[in-house]
Design goal:
The protein has six helices and no strands. The protein is mainly α and about 160 residues long. The relative contact order is 0.06. Belongs to the CcmH/CycL/Ccl2/NrfF family.
Length: about 160
C-alpha cells in the first residue's frame, strides 16, 4: 500500500515538472540590438489585460502572446513607441499602461496616494495633540497626597452611612 502511494507520488512529481516544458518560448529575431532593446522596453511597460498584474513580457496568456506579436508588427510598420502605446490604449484602455497619462480619469490614480498620505498626517497630528492635552489635563487634575487622603475619608464616610 505504501509502495503504491509512493509510486503515485513520484509519478505526480514527474508530471508536474514535465508540464512546465510545454511553456511557450518565443524566439524573435531582430535586425539590431537597439530594436531588440526597444521591443523589450515596450513589452515591459505594457500590462497584460488578462493577468492584470503582469507585464506582457512576463505573461504567458494567449492575449499577451498576441499583443507581443502586435507590438512587433507595429514596430515593423515603422511606428514609434507613442504610436504603439496609443494603438493599444485605443483598444484596451489606459489599463494596458503601467504609467497612464495624467488626465481627468486618472487623477485619483496619480494624486490619490498623496492625498491619503496628507489626510493620514493630519489625523496623526490631531490625535497626538489630543493625547497631549489629555495628559496635561490629567496632571492638573492630579491630587496631592493630602487631598487624596481627604477624598478617601469622604468616600468611606458615605459608605458607612449607608
Amino acid at each position: 500500500m505504501i509502495h503504491s502511494a509512493l509510486k503515485r507520488f513520484v509519478c505526480l512529481i514527474i508530471l508536474s515538472f514535465s508540464c512546465s516544458s510545454f511553456a511557450v518560448i518565443e524566439l524573435l529575431e531582430f535586425d539590431t540590438e537597439v530594436e531588440k532593446e526597444r521591443y523589450q522596453t515596450l513589452i515591459d511597460e505594457l500590462r497584460c489585460p488578462k493577468c492584470q498584474n503582469q507585464n506582457l513580457a512576463d505573461s504567458d496568456s494567449q492575449i499577451a502572446i498576441d499583443l507581443r506579436q502586435k507590438v512587433r508588427d507595429l514596430m515593423d510598420q515603422g511606428k514609434n513607441d507613442e504610436e504603439i502605446k496609443s494603438h493599444l490604449v485605443a483598444r484596451y484602455g489606459d489599463f494596458v499602461l503601467y504609467r497612464p497619462e495624467v488626465k481627468e480619469v486618472t487623477y485619483l490614480l496619480w494624486y490619490g496616494p498623496a492625498v491619503f498620505l496628507f489626510i493620514g498626517f493630519i489625523v496623526v497630528v490631531v490625535v497626538l495633540r489630543r493625547n497631549k492635552q489629555d495628559s496635561s489635563d490629567d496632571k492638573e487634575a492630579s491630587l496631592s497626597e493630602e487631598e487624596r487622603q481627604e477624598r478617601i475619608r469622604q468616600l468611606m464616610n458615605k459608605n458607612s452611612e449607608k
